[in-house]
Amino acid sequence: MRVLRYAGILLVIVGLAALASMSLMDGSVVYRSWISQSLSSTPVVINVGNKTGGQILPPCRVFSVSSCFKVGRVKGVKLYMDFSVNIPSGNVLSSQGVWGYLLDCKLLQSMSVAQNMSQFLNKFSLAKVKLRRKATSIPLSGTYYEGQIPLENLTGRKIFAVIYGKLKASPNQSCLITGTPTVIAIAHPELDQKIRTLYLMAAGALLLALHYIRNPEDIRELVERIRSYPSRLRRRSSPP
Amino acid sequence: MLKSAVKIGLYIGKRFRWITYSYLIVVFIVSFSSPYFLMESLVASSVQTFSPLSPPYHNYAVIQYFSMAGFLFALMVLVSAISMANDLRSSALFHLSQPMSRTDVAISWMILTSWAPSVLCVLSIVIPLMCYLPHLPSGILRNFLLLLSQMLVISSIVLMASATRRSWLVLAVCLLLMFFLPFLLATAISIFAPTRYVSDAASIAMAVLYPLMASTTPYNTTLSPTAGAQAAVVLAAVIQGLYLAYFKFRFEVI
Fold it and tell me: ipTM value of the model?
C-alpha cells in the first residue's frame, strides 16, 4: 500500500512548512492594537496641581492615560506596551524626561487625587520605562519619544498605561501630549514548539522508511529515477 | 470495500500525478501561511479591552483566512472533478473492465474529489497551528468544523456534477458554488429582508451551504451556523449516497 508513503510525504511537508513559518516569523510583530484613550478621543492632559483644562501652568505634570486592558499569555509570543509620544514644539521638557508607566486599574481613581504624582507613580507602578528620544525627519512637529514596556509578568492583570512628563512651559502656553499606547506582540517561538514540528517530520520520515522497508522494489525505482534525472533533463532541454 | 477503494484511489492518484503534486503544493502553502494569519487572532483573543468604545473581539480574521484556504482547496476540487469527468468519458470502459467493482471506482473518486480536499484543508491549517498551541481555543475549533462541513457539502455537489461526465457542467457548478451563489444569497437576504419568507429561505440556504460564511453575515440567520453545519454534513452524506447509487445502478459505460 502506498498510503504510508503519501501520509509520510504529507507529514514531512506540513512539518517543514510549520518549521519554515516559525523561523521566518521569529522576531516579527504579529499583533498590534491601539489601546484607545479612556477619557476622551483626543489626547488627555491632566494637570494635577492646578486643573486648568488643558492650559498648563509651570511646573506641571502631563499625562496621557490609556483605557484599561488585560493581556493573556500566548506561548511563543512576547507582549509589549509600545509608546509613541509627540510633544508639540515650543514645549521644553525638564531633565526628568518622559516616562511610560503601567498601573493597576484599581488605582485609576486614587491617581486623580494624588498630590505628589511622581512619587505615587514610582511607588505604585507595576512597570515603567523611560522613553527615549526618537529622531524624526518631520520639521517643526515637536519632539518624538518612544519606548516599550514588557508585559510578560503582567499577564492576567487589569492594567492601564500612563505617559508622564514634566514640562517647563510658560504660564499661557497650552500643551497636549499626543501619545499612542499600543499593545504589540512579537513572535519568539520556543524550543518545544520547534521540536513539535521536528516530531512531525520524524514521524513522516518513519512512515516513508516503513513503506520502503515493506516495498524494496520502490527503492530501486526511486534510485533509478534519481539516477536518470540528469539525462532526462538533458533530453528535455536539447532540441528534437 | 474501502481498502480496495483506497487502493484504486492511489492508483488514480498515480495516474494523475500532477493532481497529487498540486495537492502537496497547496498543503505546503496553507501550512506555511496559517500561523502567520492566525497568530494575530490568537493574540487578539487573549487581549481584553474594557473601553466602551472598543468593539468586542470577533474572529473575522480567522474566518477570512479559512475562506481563503477553503478557496484554494475548492480549486483543487474543481481540478480533480474535471479530471474525473474527462477520465470517466474517455477511459471508463478500461477501468471497469479491470477486476474492480463499480462501487470501488466510485468511492475512490469520491475520496480524491471530496474527502481528501476537505480533510486536507482542515489538517493543513490545524496541524501547524497545534505545533504552536496544542490546546487551541474552542472558538477556533468551532470554525474548523464549519470549514469541514462547508468543504464537504460543496465538494459533494461538484462530485455529483462530475459523475455526468460533462466537464463544462462541472466548471459551471463550481463557478456557481464558489463565486455566484454566496453573493446571490447575501443579496437576497438583504433585498428581501422585509418579505420574511424569501429572506429566511435564503439565510437557511446560506447556513446549510456555507456555514463558515454564514457565521460572518451581519443578518440574523434563521438557522445558526452550527445547526447549518450539521445539516450540511447530512446533506453531503445524502448527495454522496445518491452519487454511489447512480454510479452503481444508472451509470452507463460508453
Answer: 0.83
